[in-house]
Fold this sequence. Notes:
The complex is a heterodimer.
Chain A: E1 2-6, H1 23-33, E2 37-39, H2 46-55, E3 56-58, E4 64-66, E5 84-97, E6 100-110, H3 113-124, E7 136-137, H4 141-151, E8 156-159, H5 179-183, E9 192-194, H6 201-204, E10 214-216, E11 231-235, H7 240-249, E12 253-259, E13 269-271, E14 276-278, H8 280-285, H9 301-308, E15 322-326, H10 329-337, H11 344-357, H12 360-365, H13 369-375, H14 378-389, E16 393-395, E17 404-406, H15 410-422
Parallel strand pairs in A: 1-2, 2-5, 5-7, 9-10, 12-15
Antiparallel strand pairs in A: 1-11, 3-4, 5-6, 6-8, 11-12, 13-14, 16-17
Helix pairs in contact in A: 10-11, 10-14, 13-14
Chain B: H1 5-16, H2 22-29, E1 35-39, H3 45-58, E2 66-70, H4 73-87, E3 94-97, H5 98-109, E4 115-117, H6 119-132, H7 143-155, H8 165-177, E5 180-182, H9 185-193, H10 197-206, E6 209-212, H11 220-230, E7 236-240, H12 255-258, H13 260-263, E8 268-272, E9 274-275, H14 280-290, E10 302-303, E11 311-316, H15 319-334, H16 339-345, E12 361-365, H17 371-381, E13 385-387, H18 398-410, H19 415-422, H20 431-444, H21 448-455, H22 461-477, H23 482-492, H24 495-499, H25 506-514, H26 520-532, E14 547-551, H27 552-555, E15 560-565, H28 584-595, E16 598-607, E17 609-612, E18 615-618, E19 633-637
Parallel strand pairs in B: 1-7, 1-8, 2-3, 2-6, 4-5, 6-7, 9-10, 11-16, 11-19, 12-14, 12-15, 13-14, 15-16
Antiparallel strand pairs in B: 17-18
Helix pairs in contact in B: 1-3, 2-3, 3-4, 5-9, 6-7, 6-8, 9-11, 14-28, 15-17, 18-19, 18-26, 20-21, 22-23
Amino acid sequence: MRFVADLHIHSKYSRATSREMSPESIWKWAQLKGVNVVGTGDFTHPGWLNELREKLEPAGNGLFTLKDDYRTAEVPDSCRAEPFFLLSAEISCIYSKGGRTRKIHSIVFVPDFADAARLNAVLSGIGNLRADGRPILGLDAKELLKMVLDVSTDAMLVPAHAWTPHFSVFGAMSGFDSLEECFEELTPHIHAIETGLSSDPQMNRRLSRLDGITLISNSDAHSPAKIGREANIFDTDLSYGAIMEAVRTKKGLLGTIEFFPEEGKYHYDGHRLCGVSLSPRETIEHDYLCPVCGRRVTVGVMHRVEELADRQEGFSPPGLPGFHSLIPLPEIISETLKVGVNSKKVNNEYLKVLSSLGNEFEILMETPLEDIGRAGSPLLMEAVSRVRTGRIHIAPGFDGEYGRIRIFEKVEREEIKGQKMLF
Amino acid sequence: MAVSASSERTALRLNLLQTLNESQRRAATALEGPVLVVAGPGTGKTLTIVHRIAYLISRGVRPEGILAVTFTNRAAREMRERAEALLGSPRGMFIGTFHSLGIRILAGELSGGFTVYDRQEQVRLIRALLKKSASRPCAKASVTVIAEKISRAKNLFAEPDEKMRGLYEEYQSALRKDSALDFDDLILRPIELLGNTDTLKRYREMFSHIIVDEYQDISPAQYRLLRLLAGRSGNICAVGDPDQAIYAFRGADVEHFLGFERDFEGAETVVLTRNYRSTETVLKASGALIRNNTRRIPGELRPSRERGRPVTVVSVPDERAEGEVIVGEIEKRIGGTSHQRLFRTGEMDGHGGEPCGFSDFAVIFRTNAQVKAMEEAFAASGIPYQVVGRPQRLKRSAAADAISCLSAIADPADGEALRRVASMEQRGLSSEAISEASARAENEGLSLYEAMKACAHRWTGGDRKFLVMMERFLELKNRLSIDALLDVVLEESGLRMVYGDGGSFTPLENLASAYRGLPASEALAGFINDSKILSPADAYDPRVHAVTLMTMHTAKGLEFKVVFIAGVEDGLIPYTLNKDDADIEEERRLFYVGMTRAKDELFLIHARRRFLYGRRLPRQPSPFLDEVPEGLIKRVTVPDRIRREKRDDQMGLF
Ligand SMILES: [Zn+2]
Ligand SMILES: [Zn+2]
């Protein structure tokens, strides 16, 4: 069956994460978003693992469902579904190797609580699992991989947001130039990488050495509304084993749902404190130094891909899963209403549209445009249409600053509004 | 044509010494008669010793004739590995601690076998004796304190004081009854045995060349043992640094070092002065401090590194701020540990210095009472840390369980060990089965193991499996070498599963590899005795990068890029709280040891108030800070109130 999976999120036990990230509201928001399988995140945290044990029950397929006692009626009928949970965690490895500081985030998946507990037992001897839902370990990422593989043959490790400058396997600041440098002889056990918000599959495919690697996308959400901002579309049995098989082989992975990479926090280069954003070419012209303060700029994902790529821009090898570039619906609504994305007004409109049309992914990808026009507004209809066809403007993100999207020029907006008057 | 042994040796000899500087070379090659090597911090002491060992062998000395005594098992292991690397193959030198030397001598001389009681077993025995005897010798003293007093008396080679006499006698006879020895007996009994002229002659012939590391810290008992083995003008090479003598409280006496030339006829002294570890600033600062001691060998270390950054003296409001400052400085040097922290410190491109891992940092303090506050700061930050040398932490630890397993395998009649194995969570016996077997053992006068076997025909499931497992271990004992047996036991007993592979067994496995190839049936008892003298300082997991938190005593011999000394306050450094007979020179040496651990950067931190021993007290900076020249210092003051940081912006609804 065809389903959407977001396998990397964080719980309320992670730093800088919303108190709302509880099993109940993850369950609710997965439905609003149209996510059928959602990672639990943070199973390394003993408190979160206990809560998961208490509130989830095994569905018998390596996935979990929310127990009836914890379900609420808050989900509009149009969005009702049965979301499954998959045990996931993210671990931050900080260590030195080859004379450089390395900071690598990895996602880990396991099929049951026993495996999670076993991995936790091993890791608790190495670092503090209670301080943060995403624990910091002073451990070589390769050693972590070894431990994960030792815990269970069903367990899987995937390098997280593989291109972010500070905390990833290819990161410009503290990563490696290849998977082999990081994982050495265990590299064959790396079947997939997570592309992260600032890169899309097309950019990754410029590296021929990643041809054998599956590209997956997840939200890395720190609050419920961010669930599903990136995700994977599978067509397999709905089970842990089938999902992992698809991640291993790409068979059954139809494609991914992506941010426009320019919207990600690290697409371009630059220096946030000085408000300086640079394209890779400009960075080279400025000798990697901030033209305002003279300190080194943070080299972004696009630059880094360019550095490691062996293919021209636009190359796309045949036979690989495709992808949809989307902008989250609340952001689109925010643009049409010209109010902040966190405003009450956006929230009301969002829920209204969902109630009449269905979950967010349906709206963004499938709902006929006229229906959107009817349930929302002509401006929203036009906006979704433009997002679907990629006709948008984005000021690229840099050095931790999200990219800024503009779907409409000011004049256009007025014109479309005007058209509405004519009907 | 085969290369002759002697030309091979010549080649080795020629290559050997090229990496040494002049004084190191002298120390490595002065082979005849007593030699005292004064080796300050970072002067290449271990390098020099291993070259001396290799050089001795290259000159035709039998490897078995070389005895090298170290202070810790870790040091022994490092020395052995480096010597073997230099020689290109394993050789038969004896490299070990005083305790393992004692065990070696006793194993050769005591025909009836013996058991070593570790500190815990010693305390248990004393507690049992106190219960039995009507009069407690010192009502107020805890059992641990009594154990320490007994130990100190033995170390000093002295009679225990009057009040302790009775208990001491009971304790000794209880040990004799169990053919058991405590740690201190591992030195005293060999001294007794070497009182026999024939025995002494044998050992003097056996060990033609002796090297002693950390000579400044030897106790009178250890000194006596060395004197016996070396003779008055024997080939003894004592290596150490009187400025780093820090074990007076255990009965060590720096006078042995200072009096070496007097004690050993014709002794030559070699001073290693070039320091390869620290920046010039760290060296000058620590040198200026230690010069204020009188009981030392005058002299100064010469830097071989650049000047480096100034020593940072930080004044903080309290112990909480102290922890936060340390955590913050570490994060800066790591370049941030999370996106939130990145933004907070604004350090986007690291620190500009060399890149660091967590294991490049150490926090050093004077007393264990300071650990808790420091741990809280690290726990809150999520930065991985390890407390090295934490006392009494091994109660039911991985290693203790493993040793119980091996003890039960070595001697199934050892009821205490077998009971501990049987009560292990994974793959042990049910509590019903344990009580059934215990009752039967009691009633029928059987050993616990015999009783288990007698009961077993009615057992099922896990209980039956346990016995099958024990039988298999006993059978494997006769076929496997120690390292292989340990591996099987850790695996099949479920210990590895329970404790994980996170390095809990690393010290044991290291020790087992030193026994490589020896059949378990012969060497198991010896291995168990050896394993009991593993110290907490041996419990390092080399795979783990973590910030090390430890006391000055534990820090000796280690080095780190960045060192934070916490609690540089009067009362703590020098330590005079709860103590009126502080030895100021020893305290200064401790501080010196702490400072000289630093390779690149040194932070000395003092709080203006501190919660200590149940009270919040105003604090003054350590008087030792005044002994560090102002020109080498950069002062930083953290004001009383600390701004609370904002939370991240992803908190909103969208
Ligand atoms: Zn991450
Ligand atoms: Zn700048």
